[in-house]
Amino acid sequence: MGRFWSLLFLLVPVLGVAVFVFAVVPGGVFDNHWLPEDISQHGKVIDDLFMFILYLTGVIFIVTGALMFWFCWKYDAEKNPEPVKFTHGSHTLEIVWSILPAAVLLFIAVFQMDAWADNKMVYPTKEDGSKKPPLALVTGRQFEWRIQYAGPDEVIGTEDDLHVVNDLHLPVNDEVVLRVQSADVLHSFFLPNVRIKHDLVPGMQQHVWFQTKKTGLYDIVCAELCGWGHYKMRGRLIVESEEDFEAWYANAVQEQTRTSHNVESDN
Ligand SMILES: [Cu+2]
Q: What pLDDT is attached to residue 29?
């Protein structure tokens, strides 16, 4: 019976690695079902860190799985009639397996510092050195994304703001700052293709910034279970050329003015 359990244990690392391989092989069962396409300037740094940690933990996972299999196989009770001798532990071993993971974690902490500082600490500035104002305010609420563009005066909350729901249009290649907030519960503003994921905490005004490098239609996802309708909290990120963005913006402003005039005349 011990042999059966040994082989079952061996299945864990074998299947784990197989699933990973299937996921990365293009044209395979899952057809490159791994990280979504990266369309941001800073994405490579994040992906490299991710892969580094994946390979590191992957090696430990395989070695641990193989060792567990080997011990189960070798010390099967049916094949080893001699009873086990228990010891009260080994100080040396305990020190080694405490220091090794601590050193690895410390290494990762130091290794990722530059990536964190470059992408999260250095707030974008204008040419004159002043802080770049947010292009729009994104509000997560049960269960949609409210987007409010600051407009020509670059101030959010004024008359010239443009209000949109679920569709975030952005100009490509521009460094974009967004102010993000929640109107009710915890949400997480997730742009998978831009490698941005930011928790929205009620009562907090926060900023995210990034620079895209490719036009196209991408997803906005909520990455925090926020209630019964969480699944439908899906928006669209439309990255377009400067001209297309300007054209869309002018058109949307016109549309907004027209509908608000209709509402006024209805009253
Ligand atoms: Cu949600």
A: 65
